[in-house]
């Protein structure tokens, strides 16, 4: 009986402690003040543009997404898509680059790799019907050309990815337990560091980083020597030294962020653009009811100094639950998990 009481007491302490930690990381006490140094226009015509990246040489934005609300509600999935959007064209509209995709195409994380010869490959996580895959496309003047699909046992809960060669990439598994597993709620509530990042070298998968609470956005520095990984549930950015030859990672540092970090994009000056969810409970409410807005926060992070600067903060009326922010010259493109639109913003000269 005494042993039982000791165990019960330990569990109560753990739950209370993690509950207090959840209040902090979930932003329940965080005050928000809308901020935007510039102006934004709404671009309709896309569904659930959760991730995007910008080709810095051409000014073309590649966006990925699908109708998550229908899927979460158990409805029949309509095909997702990869869209392009030309920042050079003042009259640009999103163009569906995968109009013939089947219902099993539910794209999530996306990464563009540009080779030394100028060739371009697009890597896309796909939450297919039967299995999780990474779809690889060549970017050609005639559109996207499918190269191959990659799958494996370690690709079990993929969220984001970053390509480091025409064949190799890293990806994040945001959970250890799948939605149908009984322990999934505990993993989320207790913030258990059970997620990981995995490296695929073109032939084999290996776990590259472990013990992450909600691994999410992932990217590498321009020189390839540093990997960045957002710990969404942990409210932090993790930095790793990367061995370019082997792909091995060595933990370097952790930086606390004012929200749950989502996708990571590079700025041209070596800084990072990170989308944050500053109010976790509002995010959950937004998932359940599209009429409830969730705040959106895009920050620019200097990984050397640790300085965090807000570029965009909204209470969600213009765009809810922003998941990615990417910058090209004075333009800031903001995508979201569930909205049927994205934002095309022009920053003021002092940003």
Write a short abstract of this structure.
The chain is built from four helices and 25 strands.
What does this structure look like?
With 351 residues, the chain is mainly β. It has one domain (31-347): Neuraminidase, CATH 2.120.10. The protein is 13% helix and 45% strand. It contains four helices and 25 strands. The strands form six sheets. It has a five-stranded antiparallel sheet, with no helix packed on it. A four-stranded antiparallel sheet has the order 2-25-24-23, with no helix packed on it. Strands 3-4-5-6 form a four-stranded antiparallel sheet, with no helix packed on it. Strand 21 and strand 22 (308-314) form a beta hairpin. The protein is globular and about 70 Å long. The N and C termini lie far apart (63 Å).
- Strand portion, in percent? over 45%
Number of helices: 4
Low-confidence stretches: none
Q: What would you call the shape?
A: globular
| Residue share in helix | 10-25%
Strand runs, count:
25
Class inferred from helices and paired strands? mainly beta
The name of the CATH superfamily reads TolB, C-terminal domain
Name of the level-1 CATH class: Mainly Beta
Rounded to the nearest angstrom, the distance between the terminal CA atoms is 63 Å
Mean pLDDT: 91
Backbone CA Rg: 20 Å
CATH architecture: 6 Propeller
User: SSE order in H/E notation?
Assistant: HEEEEHEEEEEEEEHEEEEEEEEHEEEEE
| CATH fold label | Neuraminidase
Reading side by side through the largest sheet, how are the strands ordered? 1-22-21-20-19
Number of domains: 1
Oligomeric description of these chains: single chain
């Amino acid at each position: 009986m005494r042993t039982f009481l000791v165990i019960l007491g330990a569990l109560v302490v753990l739950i209370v402690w993690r509950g207090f930690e959840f209040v902090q990381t979930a932003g329940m006490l965080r005050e928000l003040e809308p901020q935007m140094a510039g102006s934004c226009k709404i671009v309709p015509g896309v569904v659930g543009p959760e991730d995007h990246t910008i080709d810095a040489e051409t000014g073309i934005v590649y966006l990925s997404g699908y109708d998550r609300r229908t899927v979460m509600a158990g409805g029949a999935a309509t095909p997702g898509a990869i869209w392009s959007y030309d920042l050079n064209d003042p009259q640009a509209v999103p163009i569906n680059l995968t109009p013939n995709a089947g219902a099993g195409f539910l794209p999530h994380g996306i990464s563009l790799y540009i080779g030394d010869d100028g060739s371009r490959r697009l890597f896309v996580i796909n939450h297919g019907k039967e299995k999780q895959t990474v779809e690889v496309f060549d970017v050609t003047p005639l559109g996207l050309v499918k190269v191959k699909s990659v799958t494996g046992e370690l690709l079990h809960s993929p969220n984001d990815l970053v390509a480091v060669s025409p064949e190799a990439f890293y990806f994040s598994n945001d959970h250890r337990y799948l939605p149908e597993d009984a322990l999934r709620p505990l993993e989320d509530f207790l913030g258990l560091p059970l997620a990981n990042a995995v490296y695929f070298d073109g032939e084999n998968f290996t776990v590259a980083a472990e013990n992450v609470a909600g691994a999410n956005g992932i990217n590498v520095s321009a020189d390839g020597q540093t990997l960045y990984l957002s710990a969404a549930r942990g409210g932090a950015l993790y930095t790793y030294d990367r061995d370019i030859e082997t792909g091995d990672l060595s933990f370097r540092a952790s930086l606390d962020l004012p929200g749950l970090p989502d996708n990571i994009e590079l700025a041209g000056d070596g800084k990072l653009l990170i989308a944050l969810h500053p109010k976790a409970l509002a995010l959950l409410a937004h998932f359940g009811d599209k009429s409830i807005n969730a705040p959106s926060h895009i920050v620019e992070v200097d990984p050397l100094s640790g300085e965090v600067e807000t570029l965009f903060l909204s209470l969600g009326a213009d765009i809810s639950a922003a998941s990615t922010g990417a910058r090209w010259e004075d333009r800031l493109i903001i995508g979201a998990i569930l909205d049927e639109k994205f934002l095309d913003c022009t920053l003021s000269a002092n940003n």
